[in-house]
Amino acid sequence: MKIFVWIALLVIWLRLDWLAGLKKNKKNYASPYTKKNAEATFFDDGVEWMKQLEDDCLNAVCTIDIMFFILQPDDAGQRLMKLLVKKAREGVRVRLMLDAIGSRSFKKSLKHIPHEEVIIQFSRPFSFKGSWFFMQKRNHKKLAVIDKKIAHVGGFNIGLEYLHLDPVLTPWRDYHLRLTGEITQDCQTEFERDWREEFVEPDSAGNGQYQLVSSEAVDQEAFICSLLQKASSSIFIGSPYFIPTQKVETCLFNALEKGVKLTVLVPGTPDHPLVQPASYRYLRRLISKGADIYQFQNGFYHAKAILIDGKLCDIGTMNFDRRSLLINEELNVVTEDVTVIHSLKTSFEKDLAESVKLKQGDLKVQPIKESAAWCVGHLL
């Protein structure tokens, strides 16, 4: 009997901790970034993107500021570290910020990886300080700023799997942007906010086609709903994980009721065993209301993007799940630039051609497995 009492108390505490964490998390927003002028290059291939990042770092003359959720201690990670050490020895200030959990393998291997003169900092150490909610909070951003003039934002991390060298998850599909122009000032500000762990006021000037959207500056759940509500004809969502909040799911239902065509693309092969079954209840409900749901079949689909009416897109680090919407620190770019949107649409069409469209009966109900997966999977 006592064990059931303790379990009940634990469940109650976790629920109260969750609600308190959500409330506190929404009180700490910094100022949002304004729209800025920029030029962007779209990447959906990790090999091409990695080469561009390396070239930009090689040409750096003053500063290199890099932040990733995952940096693997494999050949890809060690190659980048050699480049960063080389630039640091040339007098370039190099700062590297990694999530303490996402890059835990790199942290453990650091004593065997040369990193002289590269300033390394690990964000969000996994330590319990009275709140399970904030213990889970991860820095999921992928950001690089070179000489304060070039920035990279998107879904790629650093590791062999992102270069199509994983035996199961190859080819790896992702979307990333290389940015130049005024928006790089905001990217630098975003890095400084995380590095210093303090508020840095963004530059409010500018009236361009690009906006940097940080989870420290906006309520991600409300922001995504505001994007979905703009749709009059179509919504395309690409995400490796699909576990929306009730508020976001309601926005999707409302769009379908208005006659908006909704297309969702998710992986066929998962990288986490619990996340995929946790998404089935949401995907089934959307299919029943007329949405088109596709599963990518050729490798692993890790891209995070939303396209509204073929005119407005959101690309970055935010997955379409509760962890990204409510807990994680995320960074996205929103733009109406027709060049980027054309590239994104072309990539979408290519990925859909290598996917299968799901029917209602394809996602069979498995109550115990799905419930267990939901309880754990929505926090992975």
TrEMBL record:
Residues 135-162, 297-324 form the PLD phosphodiesterase domain. InterPro entries: PLD-like_dom (IPR025202), PLipase_D/transphosphatidylase (IPR001736). It holds the Pfam family PLDc_2. SUPFAM superfamilies: Phospholipase D/nuclease. SMART domains: PLDc. It comes from the Bacteria. Transmembrane segments: none annotated. This is Phosphatidylserine/phosphatidylglycerophosphate/ cardiolipin synthase family protein.
